[in-house]
Specification:
single chain, alpha+beta, 8-stranded antiparallel beta sheet, 3-stranded antiparallel beta sheet, 4 helices, 11 strands, disordered N terminus
Length: 176
């Protein structure tokens, strides 16, 4: 009986991590209109962002934390995200991507903004087929226990419509 109780407690703790608004020594507040989606591999949490009027689908904000010193460097991750996009003519969207280093709440943050045809990040990380007219807003927040990655992808109109809300999420990020 004690073993069953211990397993149940561990199960609750693991389930709690999947929907956490904390990782890497950081906390944040997600907008109420974003729905927490089910567990996904390698993610702390995934939020569904409602589709903008006229868009066939909504967006998603995936939050990743791999541990201190894990997940690769900031620049390598920015480049990985940018390489997931192509221009309409099939060439790299790298020249069109915008990146910026800044401080948010005293924390180092690198942001990326890229749009075009989204090809995703592999079998568990992106669309099954290329998605033209998509946009990615990403942020890598360097927390006290390692980097936390916020990746917002979706149709351009949906992402643009929720850009200020995504920014508020970033601005709510602070040390735990």
């Amino acid at each position: 009986m004690h073993r069953s109780a211990a397993v149940a407690v561990v199960g609750l703790l693991v389930a709690g991590v999947a929907h956490a608004e904390e990782a890497g020594g950081l906390t944040w507040t997600a907008p109420k209109e974003w729905a927490v989606q089910g567990e996904r591999p390698m993610r702390v949490v995934t939020y569904g962002v409602p589709a903008a009027k006229g868009d066939a689908e909504g967006g998603e904000v995936a939050v990743f934390y791999f541990g201190a010193g894990q997940g690769g460097g900031v620049e390598a991750n920015v480049q990985r995200w940018v390489k997931q996009f192509q221009r309409a003519d099939g060439t790299s969207a790298e020249k069109d991507a915008k990146t910026k280093q800044e401080k948010v709440g005293g924390l180092p943050v690198t942001t990326v903004d890229v749009k075009g045809t989204y090809n995703g990040g592999g079998p568990m990380m992106g669309p099954a087929s290329p998605k033209p007219g998509f946009r990615l807003l990403g942020a890598i927040v360097e927390g006290p226990e390692g980097a936390v990655f916020f990746k917002f992808t979706g149709p351009e109109k949906t992402v643009s419509g929720a850009e200020k809300t995504f920014r508020k999420l970033l601005e709510s990020t602070k040390k735990k």
